[in-house]
Design goal:
The protein has about 375 residues and is mainly α. It folds into two domains: about 220 residues, no CATH class; about 100 residues, no CATH class. It contains 14 helices and two strands, in the order αααααααααααββααα. Strand 1 and strand 2 form a beta hairpin. Helix 4 runs antiparallel to helix 5, helix 10 runs parallel beside helix 12 and helix 11 packs antiparallel against helix 12. The radius of gyration is 23 Å and the shape is globular.
Amino acid sequence: MAYSSKAQNGTSKLPVLSALCLFLSAVEYMIPKPLPFIRLGLANAPLLLALRLPLSSFLPLVLVKIFGQALISGTLFSYVFLLSFFGTAVSALVMYLLRRVIPEKYISLLGINIAGALFSSLTQITLARLFILGQGAIYIAPPFLAVSVVSGTALGIFCERFAEKSRWYRGETTEEQVFTTSATSMDMPVPAPPPPPPPQKTPSRSDNGGGNKTLRSKKSLPDRIPPAILFFSGIFMSVLMLLSPTLSFRLTLFFIFLIAAMLAGKAGNILFMFVFFFVIVFFNALIPYGRVIFKIGAFTLTEGALEQGIDKAAALEGLVMLSRLTISPRLRLPGKAGALLGEAFLLLPRLYDKKTTIHAKTFISDIDKVLLELDSSNHK
């Protein structure tokens, strides 16, 4: 089912904005961060640029941002998705209400984005307090809020300048614009993503450069399984992880998921994963309870706090590994947002191909040209 193409339901720019959400999510995913759930908010830029759209168009874009980000980073079954979902939802709601309630001459995109960033951070800190770090979450609140203000300010300034100078954006927001997408009916199927190119044959090492033997393409087992089957397997295993009766059982599942992800080449940075494992345990250990194990100055390590920290860390990091194993970008979600997400994934490779044409000195004009070209080619 393709996304609606009628004026009352959306805009012709929605697939491009959605692809931009995915592209910026991928860029942000590659930027190192001290904590996995800290986000610079780059993928919020399309949401800011879409605030003038009707709610029926804005909401699918928000869902594309949330689920597209999870599919790209492989975190759909993890605590990162929980934080991202509620943080983005609250932020989007606040920004949309501010744009609708306060006249534009009294609040700019900069002010709107800072407000959205702060509400997103406060939501994520609250969830981190409840599910991850316990009362120790109070120690991450100041730097977390500081990052949100700085990044929100920078992104807000960029969006202000882009909205002023972009021909593509001005064309999107004119009231006379006829809103049409590449698919002109709700009943038209979303085109399937293009098949991957055939593996390039290279000489086998065992040939020593001779003969006709070739290396078979190395494709991990998860990539050979249909995305839907992986998805439902992930749901079952995540429930098993969350309902595990003992700490030893949860640790066993954690190491199973970790080893499987490593074998599939999807484990990511193992050192960073164990660093964050330690961070979770440490912050939970700051609030002592149970039998005292030892004391160092004012710090007291207790058995109950240590076990709770290890239990949370094993569950949270295990779910991250499980998500990377069982969530594929090839997964197609149902509904309007799912159809829009499918179109966005089709546009994403073309957006990637254009990234080399963007330069620092002409950053805004280059991005404007890319979006104009992408939008034009999407409607041919």
